[in-house]
Design goal:
Largest sheet: 4 strands, parallel
CATH architecture of the largest domain: 3-Layer(aba) Sandwich
Structural class: alpha/beta
Helix content: 25-40%
CATH topology of the largest domain: Rossmann fold
Number of helices: 9
Radius of gyration: 22 Å
Strand order of the largest sheet: 2-1-3-4
Oligomer: single chain
CATH class of the largest domain: Alpha Beta
Distance between the termini: 25 Å
Mean pLDDT: 88
Length: about 250
């Protein structure tokens, strides 16, 4: 499945961003930009990003055209078809940021999902991220191979694991002291349904940690998308049954 947008986190502290418009929509964007540390400037200033929050349709589209002609990436408020980028709903557990986007088609849905995630994600989630950051040197020494290191961390962070992000106060130092061995090798998954919501926990974990995914043609894209976005996906060597629901995941 093709992504309609590539989510990116852009550091805006001290950088100019053009903001055009007045009123509620423009004020909301201004608060967001100020929170990110951006320097808000007018249309004639040099900047890589711009937000157009003009209410008049003709004025807004004219401004969008002028800015795009200069190579500026534009967010046109309430006009998703003219947007080069959109601004997501945000859950802040610094340094963890969760961004929810709908490509600009439903800000209400993004806001509703944000509210659900606010209740789900522990307030101390950022401390877990800081703990993993502080342990980078130890992790590199213990797991020399990058793939092995990633899988060890992934196994620890999985549901029920020693660093489960939704558990109470996961302890990175305690996990490192336990010296758990990472999972590797191959796992073959025989699906009983084409519905990704019916994946077992084991199947979902295997897909999430896979470096390479081999699959029969009958496996739907929605299930393959549960693997990492950068994991290699390939058809089963030598073909095979056209309606098979078998997946083999490889953790190198």
């Amino acid at each position: 499945m093709t992504l309609h947008s590539l989510p990116l986190f852009v550091r805006l502290a001290g950088r100019p961003v053009i903001l055009l418009g007045e009123g509620e929509a423009a004020d909301a964007k201004r608060r967001l930009l100020e929170r990110a540390g951006a320097v808000i400037v007018g249309e004639e200033a040099a900047a890589a990003l711009a937000i157009v929050a003009l209410e008049d349709q003709a004025d807004a589209l004219a401004a969008v055209a002028r800015l795009k002609a200069r190579g500026v990436l534009v967010n046109a408020v309430d006009r998703p078809e003219h947007c080069d980028f959109t601004t997501p709903a945000i859950v802040d557990r610094a340094p963890v940021l969760v961004a929810i986007g709908t490509g600009g088609v439903s800000a209400g849905l993004a806001a509703a999902l944000r509210q659900r995630l606010e209740a789900l994600l522990p307030t101390g989630l950022g401390r877990l991220a800081d703990g993993l950051h502080a342990a980078r040197g130890t992790l590199r020494q213990r797991y020399l191979d990058g793939g092995t290191r990633r899988r060890a961390i992934g196994a620890a962070l999985a549901a029920g694991g020693p660093l489960d992000p939704l558990a109470e106060a996961p302890d990175v130092a305690r996990w490192l002291a336990a010296d758990a061995s990472p999972v590797g090798g191959h796992v073959r998954i025989v699906l009983t349904s084409a519905d990704p919501d019916e994946l077992t926990l084991r199947q979902a974990r295997a897909l999430a940690n896979a470096d390479r995914v081999l699959h029969h043609p009958g496996v739907p894209t929605a299930i393959l998308d549960r693997a990492r976005a950068d994991a290699v996906r390939a058809a089963w060597p030598g073909g095979g049954e056209t309606d098979g629901l078998t997946v083999e995941v490889e953790m190198a």
